[in-house]
Fold this sequence. Notes:
This protein has helices at 2-54, 59-66, 69-89, 96-124, 128-208, 217-285, 290-317, 329-339, 341-347, 366-384, 440-450; strands spanning 321-327, 349-355, 362-364, 388-399, 403-412, 454-459, 465-472, 480-483.
Amino acid sequence: MRVYLVLGLLMLVTVGGGTFMLWYGTGLQNFFSGIFERQVAAMDAAMRLESSLAAQRGFLTYYSLNFDPVWLARLADQQASFEKEIVRVRPFVDDEEARAMLNHIEGEFIRLTVEREKVVSLLDEGKRELATPVHAAARKRFDSLIVSCELFLDTLRRNLERDRAEGLWRMRLVNGMATAFLPFTLILGMILALVLSRQLLGPIRRLAQGEDDPVGADEVAALENRVHTLVERAVQARSKLEKSQTALEATERLATVGKMAAGVAHSIRNPLTSVKMRLFSLQRSLELNENQHEDFEVISHEIKHLDGIIQNFLEYARPLKLSLKRISPSDVTDAAAHLLGPRLEAQGVQLEVVRDGALQPILIDPEQLKEVLVNLVSNAMEAMHGPGRIVVEEIEGFMEPMGRVAIVSLSDTGPGVPEQERERVFEPFHTTKEEGTGLGLPIARRIVREHGGSLTLTQAKGGGAKFTMTIPFDNRMQGGARWQ
């Protein structure tokens, strides 16, 4: 307890003092950064302001002597430069006195510009006698502006000196606090070293020398128990590591088997296609009775079923690549509804799309998402086994951690899916249909996840199934994608 007490005090002083120093040092850094960003930049702009004004001297006089328009062009350039410097220096001036002086300079410069334009106009009209007093007043205002710029620069220098003095005072305060904290830290460190020497290091040393009853043997025994515990944990960690390595090897073997299975499926598909074509040719060339024709239909159906299984398997095994377009998901919904229109009408299923307006365009692969919607609508039609109603609802919302999202939900009036089966339907090769492959919904969820979104299954209000597809507007793709 003494060790903990002294260590706690040492940590309190060190962490507390360090935190305070860090906080105060950050404030001091921001203070000096403000000086350089505000005062120094303001002084630099003010000096350029004065230089730009001084560079305008004499141009109007030279023009009055030879009426060369070059002098007016150079004067206009310097006036534009002066106005630009006024705009540049203004954001850095936060002192009321300096701001008032800058406003005065700007107002006087506007008056000077008006007087210069009047002088030029009178000179161009040949009224030199009338232009002379106006020119003299302009020169007087120009000299006054030079003085005002110098006073403005002196004000900025005083502000900089004031901030510099305040910064030095803060630095002296930091040094004083550091000097005050240092003795406390050293004293607490010495006390901690003394306590550790008497309570821990001394008993260990005496135990190592073979003394029968070392002082503080209870701490040493506790340390020994801890060491044994650490050894046991190391053994357990090694055992877990060996199990993890075995699991990793099994996973690698499964990945190899998966690649082999994809190759085998691809190899099976080619002869299966040939068999299907030959069977179609035989069916057209042979005269079959009713039983033989029925057998041919069963064989054709089963071959088509096998081809569908292989196609879905290859699609699931193949790395998904998205072809992105900026398009509204509402357009994808309309395309899927138009594609399935004849099937819906034939089965007597009513498809209703509910939306306040078309969803905002986002980066998606319209063909892949259309495949998802077609799959969901087809599943709903098969689940209803006849007439029914499917409602597709589109809304925009906000969902953590995806942010702003587009939500497309599809509800049907079928029997629904039991709660214990709702996640299993997304597992590969899990199906409740006699001729299903069990890959449609896993592929659909994979496509949605590649868009950075999610696909979930819940119960609709009427008891049927409700699939909800959520896609973020700022979607971060999980796999490869290309732009169009």
